[in-house]
Specification:
This is DUF1308 domain-containing protein. It contains 6 helices and 7 strands. The protein is an alpha+beta fold. Strands 1, 2, 3, 4, 5, 6 and 7 form a 7-stranded mixed β-sheet that branches.
């Protein structure tokens, strides 16, 4: 991505965030999104790269989040881009081998009036791995942490968890989602963005999309 293009997109993101009504999203959530977008703009303005050079930035990730928030059936947005810290004393953290880490939840909201967590990725599918490698956390562990957080924090417990892959997902990883977590694909009107759907966890207490 070129700096000029990224800057234009970041400015558009700021305008889109400012247009989100407070009847849908809290002012603190808007502030968080504006801080992220303005941080990207600051990074771009400080960059010494020429306009013809390419770079990597987070504008696609923020755009994907805004795209979701703009949908009419998304309401009651109370939390964006925040981690939920997991205690090593929690039973499910021991089961997945997690100690004092955090599950990153991109959006806490209502999705068609159901309490929902959105996990958003704008990464190139070829860089999304299933298993962890060194310090790089794989998708499998991240999902396990998110489910653990959902089971642990009753005040935020969702009935739906959406995994939203803005640039799609590798066929093999889709298969792993089906095999390991009973995922299924959700048919929705979220434009051209793709996702996967999971359902039927223990005790049928939650759907993971």
């Amino acid at each position: 991505m070129e700096i000029e293009e990224a800057t234009t997109r970041c400015k558009a993101v700021v305008e889109r965030v400012e247009r989100l009504p407070l009847s849908k999203i809290t002012s603190s959530c808007k502030s968080t999104l504006l801080r992220l977008a303005n941080s990207e703009l600051s990074f771009l303005s400080r960059s010494s790269l020429s306009a013809s050079s390419s770079l990597s930035c987070n504008v696609g990730y923020i755009e994907a989040i805004i795209h979701i928030l703009e949908q009419p059936y998304i309401t009651g947005v109370s939390r964006v881009c925040k981690p939920i810290h997991l205690s090593s004393k929690t039973g499910c953290t021991r089961e997945v081998g997690v100690t004092s880490e955090a599950a990153h939840i991109d959006i806490v909201c209502s999705f068609h009036r159901q309490p929902t967590w959105f996990i958003v990725s704008s990464r190139n599918p070829k860089y999304i791995s299933w298993d962890s490698l060194g310090k790089n956390k794989g998708l499998k562990v991240r999902i396990e942490q998110i489910i653990c957080a959902a089971q642990t924090f009753q005040a935020l417990t969702p009935t739906v968890i959406v995994l939203f892959f803005a640039n799609g997902l590798d066929v093999e990883i889709r298969g792993n989602l089906v095999k390991d977590f009973s995922f299924r694909e959700l048919k929705s009107d979220l434009s051209h963005f793709e996702f996967a759907f999971v359902d039927g966890l223990e005790d049928d207490w939650i759907n993971v999309v």
